[in-house]
Design brief:
Blueprint lengths: L10 H12 L7 H17 L5 H9 L6 H12 L4 H7 L2
Helix pairs in contact: 1-2, 1-5
């Protein structure tokens, strides 16, 4: 399972792109990206992250998404799983 990854982009940006692809209804890599997001959320939950449901709800609702809130949700996730770990889940 390999998501398209550009090694010139930092891991946090890679993670953001994977999350957005996971919730892109018309995206070709939607299922693969969603599996990566699910694994990341499971790992974060094992480490104490309790916002998985709200995280998924936010990204499933494109009408409420904003760049500021997207950064906030990803930052809260990155407190439990680093962007580098997220990146490695995509390989």
């Amino acid at each position: 399972m390999m998501a398209e990854v550009d090694v010139r982009i930092d891991p946090a940006e890679q993670a953001r792109r994977i999350v957005l692809k996971a919730f892109d209804i018309n995206g070709k890599q939607r299922k693969e990206s969603f599996r990566i997001v699910q694994r990341a959320l499971m790992l974060a939950a094992e480490r104490g992250y309790r916002e998985s449901e709200r995280f998924l709800l936010y990204f499933r609702t494109p009408q409420v998404r904003s760049e500021r809130l997207t950064k906030k949700w990803l930052s809260s996730l990155f407190e439990y799983i680093s962007p580098e770990e997220f990146y490695h889940l995509s390989h």
